[in-house]
Known about the structure:
The chain has helices at about 30-40, 60-70, 85-90, 105-120, 140-145, 160-170, 180-185, 190-210, 215-225, and strands at about 50, 75, 95-100, 120-125, 150. The chain is an alpha/beta fold.
Amino acid sequence: MATRVHPRQLAFALPHAESLGRDDFLEGPANAAGLVLVDSWPEWPNRIMLLVGPEGCGKSHLAAIWAEHAGARSTSAHALTADAVPGALATGALVVEDLKPADFDERALFHLMNLAREDGAFVLITAREPPSAFQIELRDLRSRLRAAPTVSLLPPDDQLFRALVVKFCADRQLAVDETVVSYLATRIERSYAAARQAVELLDTEALRLGRPVTRALAAELLRNA
């Protein structure tokens, strides 16, 4: 007798809106300096500020809070062109997201920084590592980036890390209890990216398997990851 094979249930990668309001930001010692920067605007020490920290640490969340408060437009560093600079600064405030080494137009960024200074515009640049460490060909741009004040976000402490796990679950409308949060908090790398990835894995596999998100499921998935 032939064995009947049941089709594997597929888990569809539906978009999940992350809450990026001021009240949704989880504050802790690791990111307190970033929140002070956002809340202190427009009393900044410089019109151009750098916000630096590891992947998923809240840079985009803080930038979104500031953009709403300052009426700032937003662009990715990769997409910035010299021709687009005047329009990008039209509101007098701009977020430049995710500045990476060798992944941006140096002349466009230099033009942006010059025009922002001339017009008295505010610019918030986010990056995973300090741009002062980048290999930059334009000497004047290198000098400008090194002169811009940098605010750093640090890896989360235990309390903030647990709160992040809860928030990422809430963003995905996952109902989890304390046993799941505690299990994840003590068994995955203490980083923003790891917390996000673990919650995404739990959500995807719980949907595929048709099972609730429990400590047992978390243990099973992390053991096989």
